[in-house]
Each structure stands twice: as structure tokens, then as C-alpha cells.
């Protein structure tokens, strides 16, 4: 089962990807993890990616696709995989399809976790992160036992720059411009599954697994 997670930043696709990974015993792969692993292991592709990142440039599509294809050829992806944060653009999706076609494979499902912008701005504005251990909380949905203090290490909790409303709005704009067209792309291929991401996490998961079987 080869799955792609789609949805705006903060829609909850990462949470669903983790739950699906546990249920089906297939790896949850994020591009960030792939970059970190390749840079840490000093691979040829990792060195190339690091060169762009150190220069403050975006890693080119070709290189990102090479890194992803390299990763999904590994043994633990034999039964399938869940891609989270890739592809982000139509050219990346086309390049991934081309690479999979060469192996006589294809994406089975593109799962779109659909959440309105307004909900995402409110949701992310309520997030708090620990400056010590990095644990995350939400002021409404998952508050710490003591306000502003981490349950695990006792350090203070902060609203990250990434989660501030003005930053979230910019990230959503980039999503609508670059990534949202992927919904139509996978819909035309007949592999799109859209779920209402405003529902309870477990209800969303139930709806996805009902289709996946």
C-alpha cells in the first residue's frame, strides 16, 4: 500500500500518517527525516542537499525526488509506505509517478485531510512547544497540567514563530499556490480520498481505514 498524505500545514496529516504506519506496519516517511538521515550518514545525495541548504537555497525537485526514490527502495518499504510532505508540487508528483512506473508500481491512495484555513489558524495559534525537550501541547485540546509549563521537564512553553497567525497565513498561501493543485492531480488519477479533518482524530482515522481496508 503506497500512500501520500495531502493537506494544509496543521491539518493533522502527520498524526494520521503515524497512526496508519502503526496499523499497517509500513514506514511513515517525511522529507525532513530523509534529508536529516542522508546528511547525518554523509551520503552523496545528502552532501548535495546540504550544499543547497547551507547556501539558503531550496533543494531542487530532481534531488528531492532522487532522495525519496532512494528511500522507498529500502527493505522496510517492501509492503508499502506513507509519504508525508512530499510531493509538494505537480512537477514533483509527475517525477515520482515516473520513477514508480519504472518499477511497475504506482501510488494507491492520496489522502487529503481537509480543514478550512480559519480552523488551521485557530488550531496552530493554540499550539505551545517546550523550550527544553520540544514536547508540544495545545491550550484547548491538550493543555499542560500547569499553564505555560512542560509536564515532562518543567521548562516554559512558548508559541513558536511558525505557529503565529501571520506566519500561518503565509504558509497557507504557499500551500494554496503550490500544493493544493495536487488534489485535482490525484483526483483525475482516481486515487484521491478526502476526509473531513475537523472531526475528532480517531473518527478521521476510522474513516480512512474503512476505505483502505
Automatic annotation (TrEMBL):
InterPro entries: Adenyl_kin_sub, Adenylat/UMP-CMP_kin, Adenylat_kinase_CS, Adenylate_kinase_lid-dom, P-loop_NTPase. It catalyses: AMP + ATP = 2 ADP. It comes from the Bacteria. GO terms for molecular function: AMP kinase activity; ATP binding; zinc ion binding. It is found in: Cytoplasm. Residues 127-162 form the Adenylate kinase active site lid domain. Gene3D superfamilies: P-loop containing nucleotide triphosphate hydrolases. Keywords: ATP-binding, Cytoplasm, Kinase, Metal-binding, Nucleotide biosynthesis, Nucleotide-binding, Transferase, Zinc. It is an enzyme of class 2 (transferase). It holds the Pfam family ADK. Pathway: Purine metabolism; AMP biosynthesis via salvage pathway; AMP from ADP: step 1/1. One of its GO terms (biological process) is AMP salvage. Zn(2+) binds at residues 130, 133, 150, 153. ATP binds at residues 10-15, 127, 136-137, 199. AMP binds at residues 31, 36, 57-59, 85-88, 92, 160, 171. Residues 30-59 are annotated as: NMP. Residues 126-163 are annotated as: LID. Consists of three domains, a large central CORE domain and two small peripheral domains, NMPbind and LID, which undergo movements during catalysis. The LID domain closes over the site of phosphoryl transfer upon ATP binding. Assembling and dissambling the active center during each catalytic cycle provides an effective means to prevent ATP hydrolysis. Some bacteria have evolved a zinc-coordinating structure that stabilizes the LID domain. Belongs to the adenylate kinase family. Catalyzes the reversible transfer of the terminal phosphate group between ATP and AMP. Plays an important role in cellular energy homeostasis and in adenine nucleotide metabolism. Monomer. This is Adenylate kinase. It comes from Anaerobutyricum hallii. The gene is adk.
